Amino acid sequence: MPLGTLDRSPPPFFRQGPSALTRVVFFASLAICLMALDTRTGLTAPLRTALAAALHPVQQLMLAPVLAMAGGRDYLGGITQARESAESARAQLARQGERALQVEQLLRENERLRGLLELRSRVNVVSHAAQVIYDAADPYTRKIVIDRGSSHGLRQGAPVINEVGVLGQVTRLYPLTAEVTLLTDRDSALPVLLPRKAIRSIAMGEPRRGALELRFVAANADVQVGDVVETSGLDGVYPGGYPVGTVRQVDRRTQSDFAQIELTPAAPPDGVRHVLVLDPLAPLLPAAPAASAPASGASGSARRPVPRGKTP
Description:
Layout: H1 20-41, H2 45-122, E1 127-135, E2 143-146, E3 159-161, E4 166-173, E5 178-182, E6 189-194, E7 199-206, E8 211-215, E9 228-231, E10 243-251, E11 260-265, E12 274-278, H3 295-298
Antiparallel strand pairs: 1-2, 1-12, 2-5, 3-4, 3-12, 4-5, 6-7, 6-9, 7-8, 8-11, 9-10, 10-11
């Protein structure tokens, strides 16, 4: 091969262009010029906008896994938070329900106590406020036990009332407690009055029906369903005029001279917590006149028997 035909240029690997310093100076000057033009004229703003719009789908595609993971984490955290909120709401609702029941019970108790206080201002005898502790253990009687006794000034046979009517009578007295026999007990008997027709009778307890029965009322007596029955005040125990019950059934049997009359107690014994214990009326009533002595013994100069063997 002739020597004139040989390519004497260096291979590409060994070719050298501008020096590194020249390149640094060139690109630095270009960057400064572009920054100056961008600051002065905003030349690169459309280019930047177009580039951002073109790269936005790529950015969203690259961010999709990250957003999916963040959304799943938020979803699971939201479920946990919703469960905790639901449990907290249920607990708060239970507390509010319990508080509402307590408030309702306190309102009823306050109402009863207000009634007792109003009733206390109407009575003319000494009264003692008491609270029911429990029912008597005997299942065949209707008795309750209160937290006041002889050490608190209670007396045997004292009547027991509440804000709506008569409940019963103290039948057993202890130093710190007392047993009250309710009107519906089988051994209970109370003189009563029907004020509409001024009919007097005796109210006896009927524990099986939880009611009272009027005894010894004539079959032709004018007694109607709904008539109010009150204490007569003739027994020396109960003050007169306190509600005992309401007539709910009248049975006039032709073969009997007396009607069978059933009463609904004015003060149901179930659920009673606060009562008033009144002193019996007997000590407050005037004493009965003493029987007159025989004329022969009325004089203070009555002769004494003379001992045998002596002359007067």
